Amino acid sequence: xxxxxxxxxxxxxxxxxxxxxxxxxxxxxxxxxxxxxxxxxxxxxxxxxxxxxxxxxxxxxxxxxxxxxxxxxxxxxxxxxxxxxxxxxxxxxxxxxxxxxxxxxxxxxxxxxxxxxxxxxxxxxxxxxxxxxxxxxxxxxxxxxxxxxxxxxxxxxxxxxxxxxxxxxxxxxxxxxxxxxxxxxxxxxxxxxxxxxxxxxxxxxxxxxxxxxxxxxxxxxxxxxxxxxxxxxxxxxxxxxxxxxxxxxxxxxxxxxxxxxxxxxxxxxxxxxxxxxxxxxxxxxxxxxxxxxxxxxxxxxxxxxxxxxxxxxxxxxxxxxxxxxxxxxxxxxxxxxxxxxxxxxxxxxxxxxxxxxxxxxxxxxxxxxxxxxxxxxxxxxxxxxxxxxxxxxxxxxxxxxxxxxxxxxxxxxxxxxxxxxxxxxxxxxxxxxxxxxxxxxxxxxxxxxxxxxxxxxxxxxxxxxxxxxxxxxxxxxxxxxxxxxxxxxxxxxxxxxxxxxxxxxxxxxxxxxxxxxxxxxxxxxxxxxxxxxxxxxxxxxxxxxxxxxxxxxxxxxxxxxxxxxxxxxxxxxxxxxxxxxxxxxxxxxxxxxxxxxxxxxxxxxxxxxxxxxxxxxxxxxxxxxxxxxxxxxxxxxxxxxxxxxxxxxxxxxxxxxxxxxxxxxxxxxxxxxxxxxxxxxxxxxxxxxxxxxxxxxxxxxxxxxxxxxxxxxxxxxxxx
Length: 720
Hints:
Layout: H1 2-5, H2 10-26, H3 30-46, H4 53-59, H5 68-80, H6 83-97, H7 103-116, H8 121-135, H9 141-164, H10 175-190, H11 196-215, H12 224-238, H13 245-266, H14 276-289, H15 295-307, H16 310-313, H17 317-334, H18 338-355, H19 372-382, H20 395-416, H21 423-437, H22 442-457, H23 469-475, H24 480-483, H25 489-496, H26 503-517, H27 522-539, H28 543-559, H29 564-579, H30 584-587, H31 593-605, H32 611-624, H33 630-642, H34 648-664, H35 671-683, H36 690-704
């Protein structure tokens, strides 16, 4: 009252109050928001004249305004619920924020307008929307981008408001606004505003508009604009490689959501069937896109097939699946288009989830007993994608997508038709998940472990035929779903190593552990090896259990003999096992078959040119020396051959390892010559020329009782 008497207008006071609140909620800078919130609190406390001040302070306190998304999407809606602030908040967003230079602020502002629409639907429909439609075809790029996004968000919000009162959106929005909404695409197309830098903003904005107008059930069926929208979507998928890397993912997401909504609303006839002509054209087009030379076009085409509604894939399921399957198989073999394989694997699950499950249905329309094995085969083979390039293990993207797809499909089938899930399919899936849960990359180990536990403990529906389910439930009680941190090697490996005691899981678990134990990350190597050694200590005196474990290890070795990803870590792991005498029970028998087979496999690797692999072989040879019989002479022979290897570093490594071996196992040679052997190993310059080195090596052969190798002409990677 005193201020009014002094000449200050109540409108000025109201304006200042609203400006303070707007700054507290919408300013881009967190410090400004917090300062405005504190100033508003001070005014409420001292003057007490701000309407609903205490309630607003509770929602917009110092800490709440720290999160900008919370400010735009929640706090602003609460404040706008008080009539004194509603229009000023909406007007500020329209005038200041949808044309902001920061695209993140523009997008938040449009989402805020969506949430604010129920507070003032008539004002939005009659005043705000016409303003935005004018800005949507204006010259300013940022303003045009924000206005198009806002038009879609407000229209969809008005549709929701209309549903609550049993009306259609056409009863709220004027015919002029509807025509203007429909015409935005044509105006931009005629002006060629989908090209260049601006196209990176306009295309996802129009795709968002298409999605929202489709969800709002605008009466555009059979209208030429639908063809225009579809052409824009298809052209964007083909042109994804032309946009900057920062925009590509946003554009792909916008295009796929727009296509899904467009198909759902406008490509379905009165009998709820797909328009046959459009269905054939779209599916053929996207299948052709899977063969494109551009990886992003393949990605977009794969995701487009995955987002099609169920009625669009009906009677075309086999064709779509074969296209995705062929693209995955060929690109995996060639080691390229990894991102496209990832998206194709995602789409395989999406397509079949849209199609549904019927045990005795047609394989061209649903997931059934005839095609389920083939579908799972594609996903399980994707779990063996270990493609690497300059970015690292990019195959992990495909494996992660495959694990997610397996989970989604398995839960759907277990719920609707568990009888078509055969024991072999479930066994293969669970074993592959166990392998991934034992591997070295924390993120993907956690993803696999969480899915493994989810499938194991899922009650509705129960996944049938899980091997050793009772034993698994004792290893992983239900509380491990929340308490076990798979990202932490110290927690994960002590659980996963227990699967080595279950015959069905032993091969895959040991395969995964081999990569972890023989890896290079210190924490992963330490905890995985400790967990493995705990298991081995429990069985090292049980001949049958240890033999079974050794045979499994040999099987992995044979299967991956020329696969460096597994072979090198496995050699390092085997070296650690031998050094810790876990196979001591076998050393009492002469020429034990396990040692003989390890020796045969390591001899194959001796021809390699990979220094890391050769060093690992030397370590294993030195560990195998503890076995008795003729096999010991053969091991010594291999080590002595490596003393004349063409690579000096291998000769030096072999001499050092042999010196340590002789210190550890003093029964290898005659004590009378032991000192001479060790002196020769330590004093010889093994990196000198081969002629000199060969003389010393032959002397060692004589002292150790091993026949001298006969020099013959060999390739550069072999020895004499």
